[in-house]
Design a protein that fits this description.
Helix content: over 70%
Strand content: under 5%
Length: 263
């Protein structure tokens, strides 16, 4: 009877210890599950904010794409900073959620009660959520990277178009200036040609006038031989005087040269 009482007492004590152990085990499980739910809520909120970076027109990246060059760099730097900060927070939360799920997995492996099947299903659901969050995070991150590359490409194209327009405008201005200079030169040439034509007409009129005068003089000389001979003598005397004057000038020049050499 005494041995039977000792066996009953030992079994009761062992049962009490098992009950206390199960209670602590379940308490640990609930704490891990509560932490997992909190982390999932935090990840969900961060993912929404992170996704807004790629789809919202009010995001820093979208504002940078539409901003002028003077503001674009500052907005892009701000957008990159916000995006990198959210990405780092999400990576940290996902890592914590993965570690929490691993802790819940160890609890399921060590479970010695009938709650093991239910706990396994709960753990599976948490792991599926983690997988979905990781997949969504990678997708949003790729979208943001793609948007940034697309915005950089569009900005480069806009710069090329702007430079082309500036160069085209400069070339157009140069052509306009050259055209104006050419037209000015043509007007000047027209004026010169017009003046030359007027001068030519005047010279022709003068030539015709002198020809008429010469004809009248020839007619007059043929009628007055005495005057003709007188004019001939005058011309001969004029030639003689020209010769004498040339000789005198030459002599004076020789004297000047001679005295210049002597000095």
């Amino acid at each position: 009877a005494a041995d039977t009482e000792r066996d009953v007492g030992g079994w009761s004590s062992q049962r009490g210890m098992m009950a206390n152990g199960n209670s602590a085990f379940l308490q640990q499980w609930e704490e891990l599950r509560k932490r997992a739910r909190q982390l999932e809520a935090d990840v969900d909120g961060k993912l929404i904010a992170y996704n807004r970076m790629s789809i919202s027109q009010d995001s820093p990246l979208a504002a940078a794409a539409a901003a002028a060059d003077t503001e674009r760099d500052a907005l892009l730097q701000n957008g990159d900073s916000v995006s990198a900060s959210l990405a780092a927070e999400l990576e940290s939360l996902l890592l914590q959620l993965s570690e929490t799920n691993d802790g819940m997995g160890r609890c399921v492996s060590d479970c010695q009660t009938g709650e093991g099947a239910r706990m396994s299903n709960v753990l599976q659901r948490h792991r599926e959520l983690l997988h979905e969050y990781e997949k969504e995070f990678r997708k949003i991150k790729a979208n943001i990277k793609e948007q940034r590359e697309r915005d950089d490409l569009l900005h480069s194209v806009r710069q090329d178009i702007g430079e082309f327009r500036t160069a085209a405008s400069s070339r157009t201005d140069s052509l306009v200036r050259e055209r104006g200079a050419t037209q000015h030169s043509l007007r000047t040439v027209d004026k010169i040609l017009s003046g030359a034509a007027t001068t030519y007409d005047a010279l022709r009129s003068q030539r015709q006038f002198y020809n008429n005068v010469a004809l009248k003089l020839s007619s007059f000389r043929s009628r007055l031989p005495t005057i003709d001979s007188l004019i001939g003598r005058i011309q001969r005397r004029k030639k003689m005087e020209s010769i004498i004057l040339a000789v005198v000038i030459a002599f004076c020049a020789i004297i000047v040269i001679y005295f210049s050499i002597l000095r």
